[in-house]
Amino acid sequence: MKITLWIQTAFLLGAAATLAAQTPAKLPPSPKAVDIPATDIQAFLKAHPYGDDMMRMIDVGSINAGVSLLRYQKSTAPRTTAIIHSDVPEVYYVISGEATFVTGGTMENVKDMPAGNPAVKELSGPTWTGVVKDGVSRHVGPGDVMIIPPYTPHFASDVMSDIVFLVVRMDPKKLVQTK
After folding, report:
1. 125 — phi, psi (to 5°)?
2. Is the model more confident about 18 or about 30?
3. Rounded to the nearest 5°, which phi and psi values hold at 41?
């Protein structure tokens, strides 16, 4: 009984020492947080009616992080062209509207977006376009979230009503311009 209690005590003391050793003696200065109020998002939407426009891309230390608004108009013709980004993962959050969102599959007829293209410089770094075969389709609407890893084809097809995505981008190589 005493040996078991001693082992438990030694284990807890060892765990506490390990945690203490991992805690830095002095924390680095905290970066400034950036707020984007809902009123700013609504004003930005009015000023940028369609397309993918970066609201903010900031240096947060080891990476850049940004938020953009992506809008598509309702369309009777399904879109078939997807994009792939090599370095920048994205998180899509549907603010309003509905569409079919396609991810994955095999991209054919791949074309490189030139480095001077605003999508490359201001949004996502190196990017390619093409037609996707055998992607996974799902209906998306307000409140839905899609996490898109690098090198994953993705696009919105069958845009049933004007759709607005808030897109969070993480840029580990700091390829995208800060704003």
Report:
1. 70, -160
2. 30
3. -65, -45
